[in-house]
Amino acid sequence: MLAVEMQAASLFAFVDARRAQVAMVALVSNSVDKTSGDFDTGGDTFRMSVLAAVARAARAFVAGQAAPGLSEP
Q: Which domain of life is it from (predicted)?
């Protein structure tokens, strides 16, 4: 792991304290060398692709949790 932003750090602390299972997706919207202009999050098409991938992952996770005999890592 190279870096963790504030909200992710608090989420990781919660997971550690509660032994919870969570997921997080973060889109990097700018960089340190950017001096002007709006944040670039890749446009609507990219964001919809990311959202679709998150939905697929969530469905797979929930389906796996409901499967009998599934063991925790």
A: Bacteria
Structure tokens at 2: 């190279």
| Cβ proximity of 40 and 29 under 8 Å | yes
Confidence of residue 41 (pLDDT cuts 50, 70, 90): low
On whether the pTM is more than 0.85, the answer is: no
Could you say which DSSP state residue 68 is in?
A: T
What ranges do the domains of the chain cover? 6-26+40-66
Buried b (16+ CB within 10 A) or exposed e, 28-66: eeeeeeeeeeeeeeeeeeeeeeeeeeeeeeeeeeeeeee
Tokens of 26: 């973060």
